[in-house]
Recover the amino acids of this structure.
């Protein structure tokens, strides 16, 4: 039985179980009993922890008891998937790694291919697995200067881990070679090739490698401790095409309620940044809340309609007009509005708030990835951001009858001259900070930085000093987590936050204020209040 050292609250809808070592955390994860307690959304294993997020109706006491029972169900009964990954050992850092370790390149390759690796956890990017082995001979530090681009399929080392980059991203791992194995394929039933607990071996092959053995493996079901949701193939378009983006403004994205439940595969939930505004727009035109909307940041968009439609605009206060020939009408925020074929919808720049949401009766149709049409700007999952000339499809699915009068519960909207008070709960890592830093968080005023985006709201102000200066092993994070990087300036994670992070989280925004965070424009003063 593997018992956590302690279980820390992460806001009001998540807990973090802490273990003494990576091996203990891995053993606890694979030993978690099934079925899971009702209401669990995600279980995220990491270097020393397991994060469990849950729905409002879930019983936290049952989840804590479940975490304490890890190992009472025989972990040895869990069948590991043996996965071989073919590698061409031609990496840019192979010679340097060999020199650092006092080995020859051939010896490095020999050790790497002899080890039985296990997937400890995933994160960083969809399908990126952190692999560990008991042997410590290949432990090397990350590169002093990360590369701006590491190609997809690159095989590398960093500290105690080995791993494979599923797609091209910046990265600081020491590169040993490359593989053609598809670490992530959204069209597979299980998009991620590697899951926590899987057994992995690397095989050296000649440079003539054209296909890797790993994708050809008929992967059995994932371990009972890491269930995955069957993924449907991309949904086909309905032939109701007729909206063209003339101008996307600063940023125009397809969004819905996101992809909860896939964090163990390295996929964050993402979805609409202001979920209340998203729901209100769909409600106005008679769509279910799961229908896709357009999320417009700041404003400045123009769309041409070649078909009759009913629309609704919610969220940020941005003037909007419909031009049909010589006729121009204003769009009433939050109300269903008819727009005729041949008309143009123009949305001006927001005077309050940041993000506006445009719903159309029937919903915007897009192919789905993991049962969602949402664009994840960090991982690249989902549709690409819309550009001038992008053509949009309206679903032919008949919605329920639309209401004629809508009185939504709007998200409070701020302007740069306002002060927004945001409620938080301390933890899970507030003990990493000085007493003065904890006081500063709730006593000082911070300012929203212009560098904020869908990943996080970055704040300027008084830096928060740490009591502990150790490097925090990567652990799961949640939407609303206030992470404090090395410069001491807080970052509030938004919809596209990473699955795991390596900086301490001093506090978490209460769920009732998450949508408010998404509507804070640059320059807004922010004060935190413990609740």
């Amino acid at each position: 039985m593997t018992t956590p050292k302690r279980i820390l609250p992460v806001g009001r809808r998540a807990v973090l179980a802490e273990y003494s070592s990576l091996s203990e955390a891995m053993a606890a994860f694979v030993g978690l009993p099934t079925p899971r307690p009702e209401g669990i959304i995600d279980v995220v294993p990491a270097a020393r922890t397991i994060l469990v997020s849950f729905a409002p109706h879930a019983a936290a006491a049952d989840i804590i008891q479940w975490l304490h029972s890890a190992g009472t169900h025989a972990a040895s009964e869990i069948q590991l998937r043996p996965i071989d990954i073919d590698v061409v050992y031609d990496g840019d850092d192979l010679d340097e790694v060999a020199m650092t370790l006092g080995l020859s390149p051939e010896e490095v390759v020999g050790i790497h291919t002899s080890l039985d690796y296990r997937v400890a956890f995933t994160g960083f990017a969809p399908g990126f697995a952190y692999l560990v082995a008991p042997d410590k001979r290949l432990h090397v530090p990350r590169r002093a200067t990360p590369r701006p681009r590491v190609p997809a399929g690159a095989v590398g080392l960093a500290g105690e881990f080995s791993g494979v980059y599923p797609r091209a991203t910046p990265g600081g791992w020491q590169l040993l070679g490359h593989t053609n194995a598809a670490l992530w394929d959204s069209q597979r039933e299980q998009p991620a090739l590697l899951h926590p607990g899987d057994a992995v071996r690397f095989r050296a092959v000649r440079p003539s490698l054209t296909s890797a053995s790993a994708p050809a493996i008929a992967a059995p079901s994932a371990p009972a401790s890491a269930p995955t949701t069957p993924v449907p193939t991309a949904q086909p378009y309905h032939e109701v095409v007729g909206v063209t983006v003339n101008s996307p403004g600063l940023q125009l994205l397809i969004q819905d309620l996101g992809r909860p439940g896939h964090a163990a595969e390295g996929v964050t939930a993402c979805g609409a940044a202001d979920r209340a505004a998203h729901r209100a727009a769909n409600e106005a035109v008679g769509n279910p809340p799961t229908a896709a909307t357009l999320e417009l940041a700041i404003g400045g968009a123009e769309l041409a309609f070649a078909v009759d439609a009913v629309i609704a605009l919610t969220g940020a206060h941005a003037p909007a007009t419909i031009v049909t020939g010589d006729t121009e009408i204003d769009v009433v925020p939050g109300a269903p509005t008819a727009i005729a074929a041949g008309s143009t919808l123009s949305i001006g720049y927001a005077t309050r708030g940041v993000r506006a949401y445009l719903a159309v009766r029937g919903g915007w149709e897009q192919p789905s990835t993991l049962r969602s049409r949402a664009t994840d700007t960090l991982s690249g999952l989902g549709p690409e951001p819309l550009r001038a000339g992008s053509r949009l499809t309206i679903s032919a699915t008949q919605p329920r009858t639309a209401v004629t009068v809508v009185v939504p519960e709007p998200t409070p909207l701020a302007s740069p001259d306002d002060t927004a008070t945001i409620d938080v709960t301390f933890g899970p890592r507030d003990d990493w900070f000085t007493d003065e830093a904890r006081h500063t968080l709730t006593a000082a005023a911070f300012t929203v930085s212009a560098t904020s985006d869908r990943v996080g709201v970055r704040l300027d102000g008084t830096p928060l000093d740490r009591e502990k200066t150790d490097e925090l092993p990567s652990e799961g994070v949640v939407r609303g987590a206030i992470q404090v990087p090395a410069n001491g300036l807080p970052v509030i994670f938004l919809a596209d936050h990473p699955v795991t992070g390596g900086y301490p989280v001093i506090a978490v925004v209460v769920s009732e204020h998450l949508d408010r965070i998404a509507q804070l424009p640059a320059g807004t003063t922010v004060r935190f209040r413990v609740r």
